[in-house]
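Task card 7
Instruction: Convert sequence to structure tokens.
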Amino acid sequence: MARGPKPQKIRGVYWREDRNAWAAQYRANGKLVRKVFGPNPEDRQQAIAWLEDARSLKRKEGADALPVKATEPILTMAEKKALRDEKASGVTVGELCDDLKDYIAKHPTQYKDQVNPPRRLDRIKAGLGGRHAAGLKPREVEAWLDGLTNGHTQKAKDKGKPLADASVNRYRVMLSASYKRGIKNEKVTDNPVKGTSQRKLKNGVIRWLKPEEEKAIRAAIQKRIDDCDKAGHHQEGNWEQHHLCEFVISLQTGMRRGEQYGLNWAEVDFKHKQIHVKESKNGTERYIPMLPEVVQSFQTLKMMKLQRKDRREGEPNQSPEGCCFALADPKKWWAAVLKEAKVKNYRWHDNRHTFCSRLVQAGKSLKVVQELAGHRDIKMTARYAHLDHQSKREALEDAFAA
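Output:
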């Protein structure tokens, strides 16, 4: 029986014996992409058509436009955008917020603060969650940010009070981050937050701790420790001792609150007397030398072996294993101590300002302060330059020496 003519060989289309089917292949970004079709003649024609589509796309838009997986469709950039826009038409801002919340929960090292970002995303979802993500305009984002009000308290007198510009900027960052995550997930193509402006902040007056104020704070904490000892409340006394260690470490290392309370014992080097901040706010790492009182404070904390508590029943603590501190936030006890010490208009973050200010007042160079504080830009450190009275005096004396 006579056989028909053999099909013409086409480079990239071949018969796979192991699969008993026609297949085709091309190379994209150094990777070989293979696709198996079927055993019939029409399957071979599909393989040829698939390969021709790939070659045509490569000629028009370059090899980077080719998919690196056989399961992905071969589409032009315009077709991909149209497909993404079609998908995005059903994606809401609330869905983007949920995706980012899920990402934050799965990456606690990247997002050391597991409380405030999700809380801000919940508020964004409450205000804009029902909107189609692709349809949100920059002017609408601006209008929502302008209308933010203080919902963190139930006090009637505070309802309707506008958030500070710094807080509004944080909400703007979280909304933008949810769109960036959406773009990576190919749910949206554009970020409307890019068309909005960040609120300009005033640096204001730098607040640092005066020696007599530091003495008053230490005395207030020590009194709490002594009162617990007298009453036989040893567990409560341990917590008050813990607070004193927190304060000393904050004041004498200049760490940001998130850096301090995210610290693990593996990052505290007792042998070389230094702290390794692996990832700071700006993504860099640094080493901070430990003064004797800081070393002693860490040793005290380690002996206490206090553990962070669960937030509530059924909601276990999400803190990383091996945390140095049995607390994640000094807010409650710190406010009470400041009141007892009669120190006003002073925040926990001002311990960091005190650290930088005292270094500058001691005549240390701004470069040294920048490295110890972990400022990415020396412009941030330069805010303390006006406090360098000693270097200015020495410069004048050298310039006008007889």
